[in-house]
Amino acid sequence: ITAKQKPAQTKAAAAGTALTMAQAGKIIVDKALTMANAEVAKAKTTSNTAEAAAKAAEALSKKIAGDANKKKEEKDKAAKDAATKRTAATTAKKLHDGLITTKQKPAQTKATAAATALTKAQTDKTAADKALIVANAEVVKAKTAADTTEAAAKVAEALSKKIAGDANKKK
To answer: Which of these, 33, 38, 86, 158, could form a disulfide with 54 (CB 3.0-4.6 Å)?
Structure first.
């Protein structure tokens, strides 16, 4: 019985430790994913704002370029402003896309792996706990059987002594 109970206790303890570590790991990875998502959302907002500003500047530049009454300097300034804003929008879009590739997707992959590890650890812990319950029940059953056998032996011994004592009296 000790051969079953001790290993079951060891496995249950190890499974408990693994479960705790998996839970902690998932919390850490989930926080990293939340931070990555926040960075991506911020970059998306910046990209959208820059894109809107670029489109507005391009529309204004086109309008000014088509106006014969506007001076060349004003047209050049509007075109330069539109180009600058388009460059900013392109840069913001690249930053957004880069954050998705370098931070968000890896964080999502790690979060999925952590969730899988947590599920496995929970399953392993449940199995180890069940095995320990079975081993403990076997120990209790064996102890009860041993106690019963010991009690029967004591009764038999006492009866044997009594019979032996009675046999001596008859002689």
So the answer is: 86
Give the residue carrying structure tokens 């038999």: 156
- Residue 121 confidence (pLDDT): 96
Assign residue 144 a region (left: φ > 0; alpha: ψ between -120 and 50; beta: otherwise).
alpha
The full 3-state SS of 49-76, as one line of letters, equals: HHHHHHHHHHHHHHHHHCCCCCCHHHHH
The sign of the dihedral angle between the CA atoms of 70, 76, 79, 81 is: negative
C-beta of residue 121 within 8 angstroms of C-beta of residue 22: yes
Confirm whether pTM is higher than 0.85: no
Q: Which two tokens stand for residue 75?
A: 């047209």
